[in-house]
Amino acid sequence: MKKIICYPHSSVPTHFDDDIDYFELFSHSNVSRSNISSLGLSLPRELRRYRIVPPISAIDFAAFAISIVAADKLVSRSDSPDGWTRMIDLTIFLSEPEKWKPIKITIEKMLKFLTGDFWTLSFQLAEAPAIQPRYEPLKRENDCVCLLSGGVDSLAGAIDLLSEKRSPLFVSQIITGDGERQRNFANRFGEHNHCQWSIGKLRGTEGSTRARSIAFFAFALLASSAISTSGNIAEIVVPENGFISLNVPLDSNRIGSLSTKTTHPVYMTLLQEIWDALGINAKLILPYKFKTKGEVLKECKDRQLLEELVFASNSCGKFRRHGLRHCGVCVPCLVRRAAFLEAGLQDTTEKGYRYEDISKSNSKDLAAVALAAKQVELSGINRFIKGNLSFANPDDRNSYLEVVLRGINELENLMRGYKIL
Length: 421
Hints:
Layout: E1 2-8, E2 21-25, E3 36-39, H1 43-49, H2 56-74, E4 87-94, H3 97-100, H4 104-115, E5 118-125, E6 144-147, H5 152-163, E7 168-173, H6 179-188, E8 194-197, H7 213-224, E9 234-237, H8 242-246, H9 265-277, E10 282-285, H10 293-298, H11 303-309, H12 331-343, H13 364-379, H14 381-385, H15 394-417
Parallel strand pairs: 1-2, 1-4, 2-3, 4-5, 6-7, 6-9, 7-8, 9-10
Helix pairs in contact: 2-7, 4-9, 12-15, 13-15
């Protein structure tokens, strides 16, 4: 089991062990050792820039989330007996640990679902809050927070909110290759309405980073402090289509390492339960949880603006590997291309695809999609789903089942267009 300790500057340990890794949160460490790093250095400055004064509960959640992402990046899966499942012992110093201890089991359950690992958490009392704003807050006129990743769904979500005369404050997590794209989209929607933040450089070589989305939600929660008042619930809109959110394994090889759960309903439900238990006044809204990506595009409330911007969006799971260009044959790319086809949009994605003709690729993702489509055709959607919807109540299960079927049908239409099926 790998042991990690994360603390604010007020609670620097008096002794450091060589077999433990340490992270100082939101400030530079004054201790120079190979097993000590600093994280989230820019966040206090960014909060001051936007004059956001978050409550202690949101600051504690940000400290927690960044600690989780740091541990996820640091601990290599290749060192685990099965090459995947890790055992992580994480201690986090918080301002209000007494609120966290009663829900420790729920938090560990959420993390196990999200990353596939066994987490043992310990919450200790920090001597002072990790971030201590000393300025007057700016009350904004925004009426919700909206995640803006730079992808198709978040773009459509922003357009739909604006078409409904909502006033979203956009929040982005900076990812290499997407920063400028996020800014361009936000600027197209108005001025001074975009929080674009980063954890900073992480120590470690693990590339799976299944926990990365929790930092995105922490940023959204911090930003929501600028729009909510005491007693009011801030809406945090998470625009992600239901087919991708569920991310049902397309074949037996995708059950573990290839099936991310970034916005999965189980994860979103547990995260909301944790926020509620902590007294956090924020509600996660997933407007597209029963829609495919094609349906999100077809039903977008401003088709003209969508067509102007959508081909500059990024969907590729291997975008940075291919020189900031879509590969065209990973699952996210195939879902993207199928969605454009479903929505009747001529695909003019910037820089095109590495594989314009998917039939000329030997991609394992392409083979998995083709196999899934064939399995649904031959055996039906229920046999394909197996137990992947066991979490849902009967009404929601039927809606989830239908969105998976329609998502597979969109992919099947794409495959047939290239004579793969």
